[in-house]
Amino acid sequence: xxxxxGCGDAKLVESEAHEHVHTRPxxxxxxxxxxxxxxxxxxxxxxxxxxxxxxxxxxxxxxxxPGMSQERVIKIERDILSKNDAHAADNRRxxxxxxxFALNFVSSPGSGKTSLLxxxxxxxAGRVAISVIEGDQQTSNDAERIRATGAPALQINTGKGCxxxxxxxxxxxxTLAPAPGSTLFIENVGNLVCPAAFDLGEAHKxxxxxxxxxxxxxxxxxxxxxxxxxxxxxxxxxxxHLDFDVSACxxxxxxxxxxxxxxxxxxxxxxxxxxxxxxxEASARAxxx
Amino acid sequence: MHEMALTESxxxxxxxxxxxxxxxxxxxxxxxxxxxxxxxxxxxxxxxEAVAAGTVVEGALLEIERTPGAGWCLDCGKSVGxxxxxxxxxxxxxxxxxxxxxxxxxxxxxxxx
Lengths: 289, 113
Prior knowledge:
heterodimer, A: alpha/beta, Rossmann fold, 8-stranded mixed beta sheet, two-stranded antiparallel ribbon, 11 strands, 21% strand, B: alpha+beta, 3-stranded mixed beta sheet, 3-stranded antiparallel beta sheet, 2 helices, elongated
């Protein structure tokens, strides 16, 4: 994360890199490198960000007024997540305008999210137009797996970041430009904690849990299950080989979130996937009647 | 560690408010962090110094007030104090408690000069 300008070192790997010049409050400047070089229209409000300069926290030296140096307390009462939420609201407006149905897929690493998306794209080919934003700390492996299906995909690398935020997704959507009326899958960084706090502007969060994990994961990581509208319990084909207690797992999930919908699926065999596809189509119609 | 991103947001908002007030620097940042929120105060404090460095917030004291958790128990039909986000009602032991307070993540005020 860039701690100088606050824009994070998340990058769209398909973009060119560039450099920023920073002006410190004392007037000194320095330049550093940012992998964030795509052209983008700044429809939403964020930090001062010309294409050659990010001037964050600067400019103050020039406006200091003598006599203003006494300490003052200012009440601001601002939500810490307000910046992210404002970007999320922009994304949601853009999705509504273009009738794009966006889903945010969250899970721990290794639950089978990418395999599930690949299967869904193949099975829904010709029925639902799908594009994908992939979030990972490093590599574009997942976006390449999606592109192999023929669906457009864009990789966001978060660097050290543990989640996608609405600002990154806003830029990714500008670059990916999903077709009006299409469905957008956002595959978040594999992490059951942090992505729960960051609204991306999606219609629904879908949490993927696999039967090779513990039944008590919904109790151990409740925020994520509380934030989701649908839980997919994946890898059901492995159940005969495991001691996993499906009903205990579902009961734990419903204790944290009584209105959670749950489906038992296998992205490998296709079991239960038809119910997931029906949910996608019905929810997309409900989102944009 | 989404506290790093939250801290960046805190510093960004503080810089923005300082700029609006033509402040030279921010000396104190007071937060309300609910007991049931998903942020860890120690991690916020840990990140704060690093994120504030090089901005007008550098050197500011970070004060974190923990606001208590409360919820509405559907079975008791009243407001109860809760210590865990998805915990049971302390009176009836059922899990049908809807959180009403304790989720705050807010910058309450700044001291500037």
